[in-house]
Amino acid sequence: MPRPVSRRTVLKSAAPAVSTAFAAPQSKPRIAVVGAGAFGGWTALSLLRKGAAVTLIDAWGPGNSRASSGGETRVIRANYGPKRQYVRMAVRALQLWKENEKRWNTRLFHRTGVLFMMSAGNPQSDPALPLLREAGVDFEQLDAAQARKRFPQINFEGVKWAVHEKETGYLTARRNCQVVLEHFLAEGGEYREAAAKPGGIQGREMRGVSLSDGSQVAADQYVFACGPWLGQLFPDVIGKLIQPTRQELFYFGVPAGDARYSENQMPAWIDFGEPLFYGIPGNEWRGFKAADDTRGPACDPTSQERTVTPAVLQSVRKHVEFRFPGLKGAPIVESRVCQYENTPDENFIMDRHPSAANTWLLGGGSGHGFKHGPAVGEMMADLVLGKTSVDPFHGLARFAGAPR
Fold first, then answer.
1. Which CATH number does the domain 7-68+174-242+345-399 belong to among 3.40.30.10, 3.50.50.60, 3.40.50.150, 3.90.226.10?
2. DSSP state of 326
3. Alpha-carbon 69 to chain mean position
4. Is 144 exposed, middle or buried (CB count within 10 Å of its CB: 0-12, 13-18, 19+)?
5. What are the distances in angstroms from CA 136 to CA 79, 130, 167, 273, 305?
6. By percentage, how much of the chain surpasses pLDDT 90?
7. Contact 178, 5 (CB under 8 A)
8. In angstroms, how far apart are the furthest CA atoms of the chain?
9. Statement: the pTM of the whole predicted model exceeds 0.90
10. What is the tens place of the pLDDT at every residue in 242-272?
């Protein structure tokens, strides 16, 4: 188990400084990363490992309860339909999760596999399958009879076929963000816990970042990875291109001694019906996680009350009891309200600020970003350091004409 980041460590690393921030040799590029979630934390660590002097800033801390990277667990899977970019990115991300798990001797990933259940309305072949083969993903395609035999604890009524990824599974979430910070600090990074406000733009450059403690951070380049707050910080550039929505999820208590719904005996799952439900078994003994992936109502990630609603609970419970009959009547042992930060096409934003050449905007996880954190960090670090150029797939130009 990872050691938690101690308050003493955070306070020591977060000591206010204006003139002493980035007291590194001038040969090192000085970079400030705002946001310590899955995207920002991994970007900061990747930049540090590529030779930059990096300060990471977050208002409430990595994986905090307001963050889109908070909560207990996330599915990591490679099946992305026809989107080759995300198949490749997920494969690379899993490789990096495993490499750092070994490097840090800390468990980050649970190999449960992931089961995709396809209903009668889905095509009989998945456009992702050739891409999965191309990327070297270990999977099998099952018909309904094969799926029932393999996973008898699941009711496959209405499921015509399934895809079982064997080497994917789930990641611990808030804890992994904290582990990334711990090792970012150990490898020489600086962390400041404060709210950040973008500075003014002059001559196509941002002139510093103001912090809520009254200090400022000056850097050569800035990366804003602020999740659902990115539109608030940059209303003219991002604005409504990122829409936070309220999402509720639940942990069901399995019967005592019943291992059928443990992570040792069943995979994480995604049920492609209308609506789409997904879940994770086990969750390190926290319960059987299940949620409706439908985008919820718009929300304010800072002020929304995070209490679940009876209607959403009833819908999720109904689906769990239908698809997993052994959990009929299972109590809710935990619940959570989080948010997605959605772009119109559900693809990430990884681009330069159009008016500030030294400022980068990173976000739009759209409910599927966490798993990609290490790969996104690697890609973003190369962008910031000038080693690659912006991919139009993640560029802001794709939203030309969209209301902000």
1. 3.50.50.60
2. G
3. 6
4. middle
5. 12, 10, 11, 27, 43
6. 89
7. yes
8. 67
9. yes
10. 999 999 999 999 999 999 999 999 999 999 9
CB-based contacts of 221, cutoff 8 Å, min separation 6: 29, 30, 31, 32, 358, 359, 360, 384
The single residue listed with the structure tokens 């393999």 is: 150
Say which CATH superfamily domain 78-170+243-342 falls into: D-Amino Acid Oxidase, subunit A, domain 2 (3.30.9.10)
Q: Which residue has the tokens 């994986």?
A: 63
Q: Give yes or no for a contact between 237 and 361, defined as CB atoms under 8 angstroms apart.
A: yes
The neighbouring-strand residues paired with 291 are: 249, 278
Output the DSSP codes for 175-234.
HHHHHHHHHHHHTT-EEEES-EEE--EETTEE--EEETTS-EE--SEEEE--GGGHHHH-
Q: Helix 84-104 crosses helix 373-384 at what angle (to 10 degrees)?
A: 100
Gap between the Cα atoms of 365 and 402, Å rounded: 19
Nearest Cα residue to 261 out of 117, 153, 116: 153
Rounded Cα distance between 237 and 387, Å, is 24
